[in-house]
Amino acid sequence: MNIILLGPPGAGKGTQAERLVAERGMVQLSTGDMLRAAVAAQSGVGKRAKAIIGRGDLVSDEVVIEIISDRLDQPDAKAGVILDGFPRTVAQAEALDKLLSDKGMSLDAVIQLDVDDEALVGRILKRAADTGGARTDDNEETLRKRLGVYHEQTAPIIPYYQGRGALKSIDGMADMDAVSSEISAILDGGAA
Ligand code: AMP
């Protein structure tokens, strides 16, 4: 089973993905984590991505599509993947359709975590405090930029998936366990 977790920064995608990894043996594919690893390794991609991530803009579609394509080819992806932070543009969503079909893989659910922007600011600032400021983009100014980018560039993928009946929307403001239960119900073919 391959799924997308969709939602703005701080919506809880990473937390929910980690739970699915622990409970179902799925593999979390976070383009944000992969890009941060590239930055830390000072690879060519990392050097180009560093400033873009720091100011809260999106790395080019071409770069992230290639990263995801390579990652989907690794054997562990056969266990089922949770796409976390990808796709983030309609062009990425279209490319993902093609990648999955070329690789003989399915897309089984697109789960949107519906959250309130102002609550996100509080959550992210808490994450910044909890992690000792590990992420340079977890500050209020960059977060507001990332939220703007989400609404402008990523939200248009919601109707893209809605149009084909693939989208399940859940209340991301509920507590973590309730969100996990809703996700499980969707994955197990229950309620949406
Ligand atoms: P995240 O950890 O998902 O919040 O991603 C952190 C940053 O990495 C984003 O603000 C973007 O700069 C970059 N990034 C992550 N995923 C993508 C993507 N699918 N497309 C473009 N940029 C991305």
Topology, element by element:
Blueprint: E1 3-6, H1 13-24, E2 27-30, H2 31-41, H3 44-55, H4 61-72, E3 81-84, H5 90-102, E4 109-114, H6 117-130, H7 140-154, H8 157-162, E5 167-171, H9 176-187
Parallel strand pairs: 1-3, 1-4, 2-3, 4-5
Adenosine monophosphate binds next to α2 and α3.
Structure characterization notes:
Helices cover 56% and strands 12% of the residues. The protein is of the alpha/beta class and 192 residues long. The chain has one domain (2-115, 156-187): 3-Layer(aba) Sandwich (Rossmann fold). The radius of gyration is 16 Å and the shape is globular. It has nine helices and five strands. It has a five-stranded parallel β-sheet with strand order 2-3-1-4-5, sandwiched between helices. The longest helix is centred in the last third of the chain and has 15 residues, at 140-154. The mean pLDDT is 94. The structure holds adenosine monophosphate (AMP).
Which features does this protein show?
globular, 192 residues, Rossmann fold, 56% helix, 5-stranded parallel β-sheet, 9 helices, alpha/beta, 12% strand, binds adenosine monophosphate
Number of helices: 9
User: Which architecture name does CATH use?
Assistant: 3-Layer(aba) Sandwich
Secondary-structure-based class equals alpha/beta
Return the domain count: 1
Shape: globular
Can you identify the CATH superfamily? P-loop containing nucleotide triphosphate hydrolases
CATH uppermost class: Alpha Beta
Q: What is the distance, rounded to the nearest whole angstrom, between the alpha carbons of the first and last residues?
A: 17 Å
Poorly predicted regions: none
Strand content: 5-15%
- CATH topology term: Rossmann fold
Mean pLDDT: 94
Total strand segments = 5
- Which series of helices and strands comes N to C? EHEHHHEHEHHHEH
Main beta sheet: strand number and arrangement?
5 strands, parallel
